[in-house]
């Protein structure tokens, strides 16, 4: 098969059904949160158990959040942000999702 024909077949790929595209988008959002929690936790040098203790949660719950296995509620996200000593920033713009934790600044006395 000629290379030009590969390109043509790739371009003719059928569009993804709406329900599949929606599930993919939800997974990407969940993964963005999971990555942000993991990155901030490791930045602070905390284990999942230590973070769970700070947040009043179980280690298993932290593991499910970092594994994208659960969709946290707003109160739970608030607990996480406090425990991570950071502000939670979520930007939803069409198909783009950005989740970050911004560390709180503590002034030296």
Automatic annotation (TrEMBL):
Coiled coil residues, start to end: none
Region (Disordered): 1-21
Transmembrane segments: none
InterPro entries: Cro/C1-type_HTH (IPR001387), Lambda_DNA-bd_dom_sf (IPR010982), TransReg_Diox_bact_type (IPR050807)
Domain of life: Bacteria
Annotated Basic and acidic residues bias: 8-21
A Pfam family the protein falls into: HTH_3
UniProt keyword DNA-binding, yes or no: yes
Domain HTH cro/C1-type: 37-91
Keywords linked to the UniProt accession: DNA-binding
Protein name, as recorded: Helix-turn-helix transcriptional regulator
């Amino acid at each position: 098969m000629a290379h030009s024909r590969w390109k043509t077949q790739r371009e003719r790929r059928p569009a993804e059904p709406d329900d599949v595209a929606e599930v993919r988008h939800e997974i990407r959002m969940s993964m963005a949160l999971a990555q942000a929690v993991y990155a901030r936790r490791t930045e602070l040098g905390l284990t999942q158990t230590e973070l769970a203790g700070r947040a009043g949660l179980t280690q298993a719950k932290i593991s499910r959040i970092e594994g994208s296995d659960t969709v946290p509620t707003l109160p739970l996200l608030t607990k996480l942000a406090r425990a991570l000593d950071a502000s939670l920033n979520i930007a939803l713009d069409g198909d783009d999702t950005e989740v970050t934790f911004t560390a709180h600044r503590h002034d030296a006395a």
